[in-house]
Amino acid sequence: MKKIEHLGIAVKNMEDSNALFEKLLGVAPYKQEEVASEGVLTSFFKNGPNKIELLAATEPNGPIAKFLEKKGEGIHHVAFEVEDIVGEMERLKKEGFTLLNEKPKKGADNKLVAFVHPKTANGVLVELCQEIGK
């Protein structure tokens, strides 16, 4: 794993949260994108080398809606940049981690993504992400 790529934060209202984080960080989001397959609307902020992804549910039974219902707004995941997502997934499986998906899938912000189950990572949902085309 190369570095923390971003923090994902689950929010109830994207418009209100975009305004709040724009005030907090002093920058506007550089991208907003819907990932229909996951039932989520994303919004990305970059402040120096750091990125934050806001996640709002678009489907009542999607993973973000379920997270918000169970835990409320807050940090949803920590994403790590990897050079070889398939290789990293294999390495983590050999180390005893449980993955939530067997193959990488297309995520937001031009990334392939995979997730480590929080039960095997001290309660933290870990996202692996690799830029598509690298």
Automatic annotation (TrEMBL):
CDD domains in UniProt: MMCE
NCBIfam families: metmalonyl_epim
One of the Pfam families matching this protein, by short name: Glyoxalase_4
Identification of the protein by name: Methylmalonyl-CoA epimerase
Single biological process term from Gene Ontology: L-methylmalonyl-CoA metabolic process
Domain VOC intervals: 3-131
Originating organism: Maribacter caenipelagi
Alphabetized InterPro entries for the sequence: Glyas_Bleomycin-R_OHBP_Dase (IPR029068), MeMalonyl-CoA_epimerase (IPR017515), MMCE/EMCE_epimerase (IPR051785), VOC_core (IPR037523)
Keywords (A to Z) from UniProt: Metal-binding
Keyword Oxidoreductase: no
